[in-house]
Every structure is written in C-alpha cells, then in structure tokens.
Amino acid sequence: MKDDPALLDRQLEHDAETTNYEYSVLARLSMAPELTLRLSDLATQCDSSQPRMSKVMVRFEQRGWVARSPDPNNGRYTLATLTEVGMQKAVTSAPGHVNRVRELVFDPLSVTQQHNLGIALSRIAETVREQLDNCK
After folding, report:
1. Does 1 have pLDDT greater than 60?
2. CA–CA separation, 34 vs 32, rounded Å?
C-alpha cells in the first residue's frame, strides 16, 4: 500500500492531467456548501501547508477551476470557490479515480474484510471529526 499514492497520481496524471492531491482539493471544494471553503480550512482538510495550498490555487485560477475572494465575514481569510469549469474537471476525473481506488484498495479484500474496513474507517472518521471540532 506504500506505493498507492504514486499509483493514484499516475492514473490521474494520465487520465485527468492532475495529481491525486489536486483531485483531493477539487473533490473537497465540490462537496462544500456553495462550492466554497476558506483556504485555511481547505489546507487543513487536505493535510497541507498554506503555502502549498496557495500554489495550487494559483494553478487552479490559471486553469479557470477556482476563484479566490476575501471572506466577507472576516477579511483576514481568503475563500476559494469552485467554478463550473472546476466542477466539470472534478466530475470527469472521478470515474477513473474511483475505479483505480477500487482496484488498489477494495478488490484485494474479501466481502468480510471490506465490511470490517468500513467499520474501522467509520470509527477513525468519527475520531477525526471530533478532533477537528475541538480545534475550532
């Protein structure tokens, strides 16, 4: 499993001309209310530094995938909003990515192992959400 991120990067670079990290950013924005998140929150969700996220936002703006704007509720923050072009990129990139994840992660497991993995990941996600809520 150590090479899975590289395998996912290869698939996304080949099929979607993007990276696994960039796809992760697009996916999170596509699921956000109004397709918008603060850059600082997006960086946290993507386990990224703010400088790295800013560099990605520059590339995304150049491609027309996002628009950045000051947060009207607090001007110290910047918002990233997924554009129609960005949403289309996320949508068209998803099927190949999902298939590759299935091949690498789920197909090698038995039905019972998949069920147990789902239970374990749900518990992990619950703990992560609790910790993130405590950070606010």
Report:
1. no
2. 6
